[in-house]
Design goal:
Distance between the termini: 37 Å
Shape: elongated
Order of helices and strands: EEEHH
Number of helices: 2
Strand order of the largest sheet: 1-2-3
Structural class: alpha+beta
Strand content: 35-45%
Radius of gyration: 15 Å
Number of domains: 1
Largest sheet: 3 strands, antiparallel
Number of strands: 3
Amino acid sequence: MANMTDIMLDLETLGLDSNSVVISISAVEFNRKTGKIGREFEIGLQDKPQIDAGGIVNESTVKW
């Protein structure tokens, strides 16, 4: 889409550490000057393969 100058990313994790399990990744193109939104992307990720590889799930984050 034309004139999209910025991209915002969002990672949803099950903790605050660098090795926390990531459960989803989202992104959106936007133009901060006009407020227009472009393409959007979202994907959910499986937690078990990440846990098997050493990913951490923080219980307090899950409760929150």
